[in-house]
Structures are given as C-alpha cells and as structure tokens.
Amino acid sequence: xxxxxxxxxxxxxxxxxxxxxxxxxxxxxxxxxxxxxxxxxxxxxxxxxxxxxxxxxxxxxxxxxxxxxxxxxxxxxxxxxxxxxxxxxxxxxxxxxxxxxxxxxxxxxxxxxxxxxxxxxxxxxxxxxxxxxxxxxxxxxxxxxxxxxxxxxxxxxxxxxxxxxxxxxxxxxxxxxxxxxxxxx
Length: 185
Fold this sequence. Notes:
Layout: H1 2-61, H2 66-80, H3 85-108, H4 110-113, H5 116-151, H6 155-161, H7 174-177
C-alpha cells in the first residue's frame, strides 16, 4: 500500500513539474515573440526619424523632384497615424521603394552624391534597413518556435488552458516581392 502511495505521489510530482516546465516554456516563447516584434518596431522608428533629415537634405538639391519627396513624407505621416500594426507594416512596405527613388535622385545630382550629410544619411538608412531585415527574421524564428509549442502535443493542452495563441509570421506583401524599378519618368 505504501508503495502505491509513493508511486502516485511521484506521478503527481512529475506531472506538476512537467506542467510548470511546459507553462514556463510557453511564457518564455511568448516573450521572445514580443521582444522580436519590439525590435522591428524600434528599427522602424529609427528609420522614420531619419526620413525627414534625408528629405531635407535632398530638397535643397532636387527642387523639381517634389513629387517623390512629397510621397515619402506623406507615407511617413500615414505610418505614424496607422491604427494597427498590420496597416503600419503595409505602409512601411510601401516606403521602401519610395526611399529607393529618393536615393536614385543622387544619380541625377552629382553635388548631392558628394554631400557628406546625404552620404551619412544614406549609410544610416542602409544600416537600419539591414537591422529591420534581421529583426524580421528574428521575429519569424520566435513565431515559429511559439507556434510549434502551441500546436504540438502535449504542450498544446497547456497552451489551450491558458490561452496561448498562434502568431502570424511577418510576410512581405505582393508588391514587396515584386522587382522594384527605380526611375524618374
């Protein structure tokens, strides 16, 4: 009889320990997703802060390219007013090609191309774009890990009990996947 009590007690302790380990793992994975999302957000904010400086620098050289400059500023403003993250990410995707057009202006303006402020801004934006790309990859890796835990047995039982949910991957829009043509017609 004592042996049965010890076996049952051992099973209860093992089950409790298993539960705690799985629950804490799910919490850790959820926090990794949140952290990775925050990294994307921080880098997008850095890019948004640099855009006005870049536009100001280019404006002095490219007065007749006002349409491109206006589109960049308009997109930046719409991004800051976005109602949710999916709208914001969609608008951020539209900003990329416009930034490419802005950089292409430097080909038409040799003085701009040699301007130290412009070159510095261009380097900073290129670096931030690389950081955004890395942050998106980290986010997708964290989402993959979380989704696997939420869907896999037996952790899915605990995930459902405590309302851990699947997260959407960051995916490029169709326009982002298309080859970007930069030109001023």
